[in-house]
Amino acid sequence: xxxxxxxxxxxxxxLSREIRPGVPLVYLDSTATTQKPLSVxxxxxxxxxxxxxxxxxxVHTLAEEATxxxxxxxxxxxxxxxxxxxxxxxxxxxxxxxxxxxAYTWGRANxxxxxxxxxxxxxxxxxxxxxxxxxxxxxxxxxxVPVTPDGLLDLDVYRSLLARAPKLAAxxxxxxxxxxxxxxxxxxxxxxxxxxxVLVDGAQSxxxxxxxxxxLDVDFLAxxxxxxxxxxxxxxxxxxxxxxxxxxxxxxxxxxxxxxHLTGFTPNSIPHKFEAGTSAIAEAVGFGAAVDYxxxxxxxxxxxxxxEIIAYALERLEEIPGLKVFGPPAEKKxxxxxxxxxxxxxxxxxxxxxxxxxxxxxxxxCAQPLHEKFDIPATTRASFYLYSIKEEVDxxxxxxxQVKKLFG
Amino acid sequence: xxxxxxxxxxxxxxLSREIRPGVPLVYLDSTATTQKPLSVxxxxxxxxxxxxxxxxxxVHTLAEEATxxxxxxxxxxxxxxxxxxxxxxxxxxxxxxxxxxxAYTWGRANxxxxxxxxxxxxxxxxxxxxxxxxxxxxxxxxxxVPVTPDGLLDLDVYRSLLARAPKLAAxxxxxxxxxxxxxxxxxxxxxxxxxxxVLVDGAQSxxxxxxxxxxLDVDFLAxxxxxxxxxxxxxxxxxxxxxxxxxxxxxxxxxxxxxxHLTGFTPNSIPHKFEAGTSAIAEAVGFGAAVDYxxxxxxxxxxxxxxEIIAYALERLEEIPGLKVFGPPAEKKxxxxxxxxxxxxxxxxxxxxxxxxxxxxxxxxCAQPLHEKFDIPATTRASFYLYSIKEEVDxxxxxxxQVKKLFG
Amino acid sequence: xxxxxxxxxIDHYKNPQYRGRLDPHDIYFEDDNPLCGDHIEIxxxxxxxxxxxxxxxxxxGCAISQASADLLIExxxxxxxxxxxxxxxxxxxxxxxxxxxxxxxxxALLSLKVLKAGVYGLGEASDELxx
Amino acid sequence: xxxxxxxxxIDHYKNPQYRGRLDPHDIYFEDDNPLCGDHIEIxxxxxxxxxxxxxxxxxxGCAISQASADLLIExxxxxxxxxxxxxxxxxxxxxxxxxxxxxxxxxALLSLKVLKAGVYGLGEASDELxx
Lengths: 408, 408, 131, 131
Ligand SMILES: Cc1ncc(COP(=O)(O)O)c(C=O)c1O
Ligand SMILES: Cc1ncc(COP(=O)(O)O)c(C=O)c1O
What we know:
The complex is a heterotetramer, with two copies of chain A (408 residues) and two copies of chain C (131 residues).
Chain A: H1 5-10, E1 18-20, E2 23-24, E3 26-27, H2 38-51, H3 61-80, E4 89-92, H4 95-110, E5 116-120, H5 129-138, E6 141-145, H6 155-162, E7 168-172, H7 184-193, E8 197-201, H8 213-216, E9 220-224, E10 235-239, H9 241-246, E11 257-261, E12 264-267, H10 281-297, H11 299-317, E13 323-326, E14 336-341, H12 346-355, E15 358-359, E16 361-363, H13 368-373, E17 379-383, H14 390-407
Parallel strand pairs in A: 3-15, 5-6, 5-7, 7-8, 8-9
Antiparallel strand pairs in A: 1-2, 4-10, 9-10, 11-12, 13-14, 14-17, 16-17
Helix pairs in contact in A: 2-10, 3-10, 4-5, 11-14, 12-14
Chain C: H1 7-14, E1 27-33, E2 38-46, E3 52-60, H2 63-76, H3 81-85, H4 89-96, H5 102-120
Antiparallel strand pairs in C: 1-2, 2-3
Helix pairs in contact in C: 1-2, 2-5
One pyridoxal-5'-phosphate sits between chains B (94-96, 124, 126, 172, 176, 201, 203-204, 224, 235, 366) and A (254, 277-278).
């Protein structure tokens, strides 16, 4: 089941880039965005060179080809997360828009002053700010499941918050800083027992783990193509059919309507109701090619490879004096290692590593409250994907020793 | 100043496609979406192969390259419409989202029950439905400038509507059905005198005419990259600086914030305040390459070429018995000819034309109220762009004669 | 092109055999495709054995929607309603004898949708009837 | 890498010459870069001719933000305020002697932003001060 890494790496042209002459790229920033295999680039290029047309309303051959390709992509993405039907996958710009769509439509139709929404302290800003906006506008209450010192959610507090009859629990499947993989199935069961709906931020889980929306029984799942080998400019929202059907539309315009008169409009059926204006058509085609690539390798194999890499990385990183990795041990997390190095600011760490071609991210990674919880302004984060290899971990560690020498 | 068409057509690989063996594509559907030159495809491919990374927060080389490329694209688009500053160009998914952004943020902050918004009968659904939604939610009043039988706006009625102290006049610069080019400068001056702001739907004008937001003095301008040689998945909203700065944010998430705490957030400065989550980065790069292509040819030359083509097309079409083109004469319109052919449904026209490789659109073209006004369910629409040639008009006309023969 | 608009289609469009309205009738339904203005109304008479004794369609729209309505009525006269309920998308495509993209498919299937909604006695026609 | 983190930067970061706080002082300002937690405070004393008699910075953050603050204070002591007002982004980059991407530029320019906001007597520091 182990991956054929030389072959996989050949599929990603950027991985053979030199950052400067003689300095090859060591890309350890896949949590921010992933690199793209040739098959994804080729699918989009082919689309533009052969079939480019606007979709859904066209009678001519190109329009029909484009429509078929776009809807096939939707089916592929639906199958990838085991959605019961393709109509339950709405294409958005990114995971952020997917969450905002729920907050703007389901949220504004169903949440009133005093209603409770449960979030967690490890959320990405994308799963915080839409709810902050709703709280400010509507007086909705927000409560946060705390993160324990070892980077797990405090499920006792979660249970006691559920006792307060929340309307929604919205939480991440996998933290983009701690790497923590949360027990979504169990948390969803508990939320449903308490009468709450569940929105899962799958921006980090769908790319890295097998995710089955029917097995997990979640009500909404948000994710982004660019974090799973696909292009920028497209993401998806999965929703339970009955919910999507009841929700009011989000953006108004072409394609999301059944009829329009000067006096008003009637909305289209799902998924089109939520896709206003010309869609990210070529990007959908690329997204479809990306899930094809992942499905062919198999998400179990992807997850197993990342387990191996992160276990090795944690072992090597923890041997460096003054270095502290945040989050749980390897068995409980995905391929993300966010750390501090005593006496050196994360920005300096990242910039010096860049000098040897190692691309890592420094900052709060759009999880500022989590950093406040740990009382640090920023961390340096190395993250891995199916194309990451142990030699890259070694280069990271080597680079970190150089940082220590410089600042020593 | 006339275009080097053989050279231009070589830049667009799809134009040499055969729809079926021996049947070359005659693409007359550029109003729906345009084809892409190699330079646009190449710019995106290069981005993914060399510089792909997430932007704005990254310290490593790829992230810096990607950020620079993304912001350069913004500057190019800003220069293309002569915006005073790049920060006044917000990247959205498409013109539709641009209009919704204004309706959701400026609209909900500034419009209350009984306030008046002026629209026109020739609007695309994208500039109707967002206001319908606001009308239903807030009790905002909508009034419509009528379209005259020859396809122009009735400016007397416009003036009398302005006397009712509207808050906003929102209208299209160029109709996607009639081709009518509206006197935006004059209409804006009148609206401003009446104390109203002006939003212009530039989805059809920015691709086809020189558009200068400072000369026109509009407050908002919405347009889409895919209609101007660029990729799907990206559009833009231009806004007056003082307005954008005062408007509340739209979607919440990463990048649109300055700081986030568990208790709330502070928004970022413009344009980032309106760009939540990972942007359409590669698409922005493609958009930049598209405006480079157009700017190099020159928008005056593009407009002049389209004038020539539409004048020829109208002349040829009007010789066909039973064919009626909607909209004003060639001098007052862009490269769009929507027509009916007596006794044949537009869907049949389009499908039979497709048989000879001629790609036209049939339907209400997301302007159902306009079709209701003219009391027709649908039209067939042929539309042109800088790569269109007279030989293609001839093939269209030939095809139409065949349609007549079949249904005769 | 000739194969797309096979003679049968143009022929049934120009010279429909079953255009009209039965009065009285046992089954009636109408619906339209708002995107292109196609409209179809169907009236049927049912005999004592539950078979279609006679049928008519009326409406306006493109050749495909009108021709397929005419072909459809022709094909069900004399058939038991139970058999009519089983008619599928493929049956219509076989009658038309052409390939259709997703947009034109809606035109072709409008009459089947109307027919089935009428035969099942539904309040509203749904796309699921013709999947 | 060595050229990026030129010795001067590491040196001024590790052994700053002007770290501290002047009390009393004539000019005081502080601000931070919320994205990375960089914080800079500057205190200046001005002599009778409107020249910078002495200056100090305090704060925390990355090597670039702290070293550029130290270099900046060093460069303005003895200079007329009018000249201080004219300092630009380029002057800071010249002092640091390295190329910087957009993110690190913010670190490098934080001290200049704080200095200018103080010298102009503004209520709030803005990025436009260091364009
Ligand atoms: C006049 C006009 N406005 C708005 C739009 C919507 O553009 P998009 O679908 O790219 O959002 C169109 C596109 O058809 C148009 O022609
Ligand atoms: C956990 C998590 N949620 C949401 C997001 C937002 O994704 P996007 O920027 O693609 O909308 C990210 C991306 O950083 C993430 O890691």
